[in-house]
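# nightly structure sweep
# worker-07 picked up a monomer target from the shared queue
# config: single-sequence mode, recycle default, output format = C-alpha cells
# input follows
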Amino acid sequence: MIMKLWATLLILLLATGCANTVANRVDDSRRDTVHQTLDAFGQGYRQTNWASVQQFFSPGYYGGYEELRNKLENKWRNERVLDIQFRLNRILESDGLFNVQVRWEKSYQDNTTGSILKASGLSELILESKGNSFRILKVDGDQFF
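# output follows
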C-alpha cells in the first residue's frame, strides 16, 4: 500500500514537472522569429554603426542605453566584425519575456594589428517581444559585442 502511494506521488511530481517545462517552451514560429532577429542583428553589427543595431535593443536595456552605445562604438574602433553566427539552444517564455540561451561564433579583424581573430561563447539573452521581432533587454554570460 505504501509503495503504491509513493509510486503515485512520484508519477504526480514527474507529470507536474513535465507540464511546467512544456508550458514555458515557445513554439517553432517564435523560435524562427528569434533566430531571424539575431541574424538581422548580426548583419547590422557588421555595419559597425549605432544606427544599424539600435533597433535591436530595448531603450530599457539593463546597464543603460547610452552606456551600451558607447561600449559598441568603442568596440567598433578596435575591431571590424567579418561574420557572426548565432545558434539557439533553448528559449523559455515567462511573463511576456523570453530567456534565450545562444551559442555564438564570430570572426573579426583587429584594427590595430590587422590580424583576423575568432571568438565564441555562450550567452543568455532576455528579450521582449516587439511586433514581429524582439528587442534585447539584457545579455549575460559571454559578450558577443
